[in-house]
Amino acid sequence: MNAKTSFVWVVLSLGLVLLPLSQAKDKDDVHMTYPSKVEGSKSKEREKLFSPWMPFAEFSAHTVAMQRKGEQIIYFEYDGGKSRGIYTSKLKLKGPCSHFSYTNEKDMDAQLNSVAKTGLQPAFIVCNASGAYTMLMVSPEDMDAVRAELNALGVGLPKLR
């Protein structure tokens, strides 16, 4: 066997060893298959509960202020650089939560994976008519209480793989 042939075998052998490792990493990633279904029949009920539309930075500050008053964000929408949310005083979360908005699925999926590795789970992921995504991530111990509120609002669970 000459040196060139030996080199090819080494490269192929490394590829066969490393390929399963890269596939295992991808296998551990979480990906959204379908966003949460938002029932149109409950849109009037949700509409009454929303805060006014505001620029996202203002919305984030508003959410912090609402949390200080004992109001937890439960659902929100993003469109054209503005957001609005629904808050509830019925929930007292035991663990952390995070809310995010993204203008495309690739960035949303990357954030979903990043935050899921910290142990948080998506309570909802919604894609609006313009293609923007919003999601609320909560700790597993809070998921049942958060989902009860979201079910009452007609917001389903996202389907993940």
Name the helicity range: 40-55%
Radius of gyration: 21 Å
Low-pLDDT residue intervals, each spanning 5 or more residues: 4-25
> What is the general shape?
globular
Helix/strand class? alpha+beta
Characterize the biggest β-sheet.
Answer: 3 strands, antiparallel
Mean pLDDT: 83
Strands ordered across the widest β-sheet: 2-4-3
Q: Hey, roughly how much beta strand do the residues contain?
A: 25-35%
Q: Report the count of strand segments.
A: 8
Whole-number total of structural domains: 2
Number of helices: 5
For the termini, the CA-CA separation is 46 Å
What is the helix/strand order? HEHEHEEEHEEHE
How do the helices and strands line up, and which of them pair or pack?
Elements: H1 3-28, E1 32-34, H2 43-49, E2 54-55, H3 56-68, E3 72-79, E4 82-88, E5 97-102, H4 105-116, E6 121-127, E7 133-138, H5 143-152, E8 159-160
Antiparallel strand pairs: 1-8, 2-4, 3-4, 5-7, 6-7
Task: Explain what you see.
The protein is globular. The protein has two domains: 26 residues; 130 residues, no CATH class. It starts with a helix and ends with a strand. It contains five helices and eight strands; from the N terminus they run αβαβαβββαββαβ. The longest helix is centred in the N-terminal third of the chain and has 26 residues. β3 and β4 form a beta hairpin. With 161 residues, it is α+β, with helices and mostly antiparallel strands. Strands 2-4-3 form a three-stranded antiparallel sheet. Strands 5-7-6 form a three-stranded antiparallel sheet, with helices on both faces.
